[in-house]
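fyi for ur records
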Amino acid sequence: MNKYTEGFLSSISFFTIIPLKKSYPINKYTLYFLSMTGLLSGLVSGFIFYLISPVNRLIAAVCSISFLMIFYGFNHLDAVMDFGDSIMAGGDHTRKQEVIKDKYTGSGGVGLLFIVYLTSIAFLSYFPTIYGFIVVISAEVGSRYIMILIMYGSKYFGDGLGKVFIESLGNNKSILIINAIPFIVMAFFNLYNMAIIVILIAVMYLFKKRVEKTYNGMNGDIIGSTGEISRLFYYIFAFIFLISGFFYII
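which gave:
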């Protein structure tokens, strides 16, 4: 088995609940396929939305988002709550780092959880069947790519998986390029996907700079939360494009 095959299986094993016969090491080759896991999860989640939305779009959105939360093993949900608690914590970066790493969940975590997921469901439920199908897939690919961008060239705090991933990524531009391939493919189906991704990257770059300044670095919870927040932003931007008449499918 070559290193890229192991990297793909490592990415599937770590980022999803798909059972594999053995465990695989987490390294830079794991990160080569992060966007691919988004494509995989997005295809299934999008298909769920596609099947149910003719009956009821709200139920379709709930089922689609619920599948994603389960598929990722609720890991990102926990990250969102930890991040939410730290946002609400007063004090300097030392205090925020302490809060995001503790085991307790407060009102900030519950609040951010509701904002991220309920708002995502609300925006997704607006999209007609085929539009929603494309948006779900594109948002997952885009959000996983944003996670790569957030880690690229960042400093870390703590000794968790955030450190492992940031050190594995380093300044490896080839990982950025490989992970860009899935959403370039998606742009073939909707050329405005690329515009939405560019806007998303710009917004999340500013987000990254703000977080690094506030927390004096990144950790796994911030990285995971960024993926979930990026999905919400993608839905919002796609919604704006759709009501403006710019979103279309070839």
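The first helix runs from residue 3 to 15. thats all i got for now
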